[in-house]
Each structure stands twice: as C-alpha cells, then as structure tokens.
Amino acid sequence: MSICGFHRKELAHGSALRWLCDPTGSHGLGDRFLVGLIRATGEPLEVSSDTTAETEISRERSRADLVVYGDRWKLVMELKIDAIESERQCQRLYEDWRMDRGVRWLFITLSGRAPVTTTTEQAALAWHRLSWSRVLSVLDDAVQAAGEEAPEVTAVAEYRRSLSRLTKRRWK
After folding, report:
1. What is the pTM of this model?
2. N or C end: fewer C-beta atoms under 10 angstroms in the chain?
3. pLDDT along the chain (172 residues), means of 10
C-alpha cells in the first residue's frame, strides 16, 4: 500500500479492515482483530462465522465507510486520514443507523479525536473514537495472540507495515 501511496487512502484502509474483520478471512487471525476493535466500543459482542463486513454502505442520508454485521449487532465505522468530515457527516450516519438493533459507532482518525460533525449530544456520545496507531496495536495483538496457529500471511505483514508508516511508528 505504501509504495503506491495507498497508505493515505481511506478506501484502501476500508478494504483492508473489511478483510481483517471477517472471522473466516484468509488472514488466519480468526475473530481476534474484530474482537479487539469491538473492545474499543464497550462490552464484548458475540462474533460468529456468520459475521460479515461490507464497505461503502449507503443509507438515506449517509454512507458508512465500513459496516460489520453480527447476529444481533452492527458496527458502523467512519475512517479519516486526510479528508475532513463533510457537513453533519457523523450526525447523518448516527441518524441513519440509530434504530438498528445493537448498533455501535467507531470513528478512526490519525489522532483518535472525536467527530466534529455531530449536532446532538446523543450522537456525540454514541461515537467511540480510535487512532490509527491503536488500530495497529489491535492488529499486532491479534497476530501475537494467533501465534503459531495462524499461517504467516504476507498481506497482514504488509498492512501492518502500511499502518506503521501511516502512524509513523517503527514496524517490528
């Protein structure tokens, strides 16, 4: 990703995260990465082999970068690197998804800041925030937890390198 400059492209990260959030994905990490992301939003959720993830999901007033669908829950993610939030972006996402069962929101930015485009207290409180550096730590933890049971997947190593470059952290 870094060689092509994709390490700064939100769509590329959305695709990588979609793959990593699939418990049956070829990455060999099972549900470890997804469980780590879910932990950032509060109480654990049940992840099964039926859990799926999709990018660029449109609703009436918004488009979510990534949505993970569990049996009784959804995780709606908005990813930011260089782009700024559009007008009322996180408020519109909140309004479009808030009636869904068990929905949680995750806002991922370089600094881990809160969204600035919510207009109600409920929406502001709903969004959990995470830095890209923390995403890298969650991925590192998932790789370490998988240990020898997971095959060495080049794409996982390359994505870790890309996140390291994005966050300016030294890759191990």
Report:
1. 0.90
2. C
3. 52 90 91 93 87 95 96 95 90 97 95 96 96 94 83 81 82 50
The upper half-sphere exposure of residue 76, i.e. CA atoms within 13 Å in the direction of its Cβ, equals 26
Partner residues linked to 69 by β-bridges: 52, 74
DSSP symbols for 106-172: EEEESS-PPPS---SHHHHHHEEEEEHHHHHHHHHHHHHHHGGGS---HHHHHHHHHHHHHHTPPP-
Is residue 9 within 8 A of residue 17, CB to CB? The reply is no
User: End-to-end CA distance of the chain, in Å?
Assistant: 17
127 CB contacts (<8 Å, ≥6 apart)? 90, 94, 105, 106, 107, 114, 115, 118
CA distance 149 to 17: 21
Q: Round to whole Å and give the CA distance between 37 and 88.
A: 24
- What letter would DSSP give residue 37? H
- Residue 114: φ, ψ to 5°: -80, 155
Backbone angles phi, psi at 68, to 5 degrees: -105, 130
Note the pLDDT of residue 9: 59
